[in-house]
Amino acid sequence: MSDTQTLEKKKSEPLFSKKNKKLISNPLNDDNPITVQVLGICSALAITVKLEPAIVMSMSVLFVMGAGNVVISLMRNLIPSRIRIIVQLVVVASLVILVDQFLKAFLYDVSKQLSVFVGLIITNCIIMGRFEAFALANTPWKSFLDGVGNAFGYAWILIAVAFFRELLGSGTLFGIPVLGDPAAKTGLYALGYENNGMMLLPPMALITVGVIIWIQRAKNTKLIED
Amino acid sequence: MKMDVNSNGYTFGFAAVLVIVVAALLSFTATSLKDRQEENVAQEKKQNILASIGLEVERADAAQAYEENIAQEIVIQGNQKIDGLSAFGVDMAEELKKAPSERMYPLFIANYNNTNSYIIPLRGKGLWGPIWGYIALKDDLNTVIGATFGHKSETPGLGAEISTPIFQDQFPGMEIMEGTQFVSIEVRKGDASGTHQVDGISGGTITSVGVDAMLKDCLQGYQSFFDNEIRATQVAYTSFKASATSH
Question: Rounded to whole angstroms, how far apart are CA atoms A34 and A39?
Answer without folding.
Answer: 5
